[in-house]
Specification:
about 110 residues, mainly beta, Rieske Iron-sulfur Protein, four-stranded antiparallel β-sheet, globular, MocE_2FeS, metal ion binding, oxidoreductase activity, acting on paired donors, with incorporation or reduction of molecular oxygen, metal-binding
Length: about 110
């Protein structure tokens, strides 16, 4: 039986505004984002089109662009915004506590 737990992903200072970093936990990879307003978000770390690391992509406003085929997603909702991306990204709850970014995962 899996339970949900808050997992420390990074320090808030590890991510610049309008940027993304990679976070690996167990055998899974995630992308952690910081918006221009300083809010933090988390998604699966791979593009749903061809399993390319999104942390190598470009953040533009609320959009992450995949570095391989330029598919785009809204990283706040996981919604695909430009083909060839057509399948939603999984998103995860995020909280910030004492300068640390935490994401809620099933473990």
């Amino acid at each position: 039986m899996q339970t949900q737990e808050w997992i420390e992903a990074c320090e808030t200072e590890d991510i610049e505004a309008e940027d993304v970093i990679r976070f690996d936990f167990g055998n899974r990879t995630f992308a952690i984002y910081r918006s221009a307003k300083g809010e933090f978000f988390a998604t699966d770390g791979f593009c749903t089109h061809e399993n390319i690391h999104l942390s190598d992509g470009l953040v533009m406003g609320e959009i992450i662009e995949c570095p391989k085929h330029n598919g785009r997603f809204n990283y706040m909702t996981g919604e695909p915004k430009k083909r060839p991306a057509c399948k939603h990204l999984m998103t995860y709850p995020v909280k910030v506590d004492d300068g640390k970014v935490w994401i809620k995962l099933e473990v």
